[in-house]
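Reviewers of the previous submission asked for a worked example of the structure-prediction workflow described in the proposal, so we include one complete record here. The input consisted solely of the amino acid sequence. No template or homolog information was supplied to the procedure at any stage.
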Amino acid sequence: MYKRILEFLKDKPEEYQLSTSKFWDDGHISEYMLDAHLNPDADGASRKHEFIKRSAIWIASLVPNPVGKELLDLGCGPGLYATVFDDLGFRVTGVDFSERSIAYAKEQAFGENRQITYHYMNYLEMEYERQFDVITLIYCDFGVLKPEDRHRLLGKAKRALKPGGMLVLDGFTSEQYVDFEESEMESYERSGFWSDSPYACIQRNFKYDEAKIYLEQYVVITEDDCECFNIWNQEFTKDSLTKELQDAGFSEFRYYDDISGKSYTGDSKTICVVVQ
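From that input alone, the workflow returned the following structure tokens.
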């Protein structure tokens, strides 16, 4: 156990070093994440629900006659966006890698008699062909992926879109990380987010200036185990997003400050792009 802890703590992690255990699909953590998704007034796992509705309405406004159009919501969580898209007339498919969130989404759709299709799946493994008019990847999920996985996902999204189809995604900018500093802090909990039994958590933040990536690392120590969760995110600019999307074969770029359609200024914590 001590050796394992020391292995996690002795060096700055390599870029995109993997976690040692599940995060999104951990049986205990996913319960806390679902509660965060469902809190309408918190920007936690999901954005505030008022913003979600405004954002979905704006995305629908980009689509001529959205009723009956096929929309794929990647990283759909418990179906918050998917439900609004369904209300707006889209035929919605949602994909997420949290079994708990997908189970909740399916239960809600069944109870409300909604014809939304949900899949518990890693969206890097999807194999759709020319099926969707719109694909969304919302709340900066794109930036948690390493570059080769981002390229892989864009290729799969391009194949999944019908000719003329539209991809909408967002990411964080440098403004998000103005106050992000390399740091370390420790805490002890009798139970909580990371475990239902007593645990200590060592959180370390790292910046990788050349690559413009950021790491929040959580080393969680329980009586019986020690796990390391590495949560990465990429800083994007208009130029860097354009290059990645062009390399994947997309064109006709439209940029916004956020995914509710706020006009682009370049001063926002987020950047949103719409491509075809």
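The chain has two domains: 2-21+176-233, 39-173+236-275. We consider this example representative of the routine output the project will generate in years two and three.
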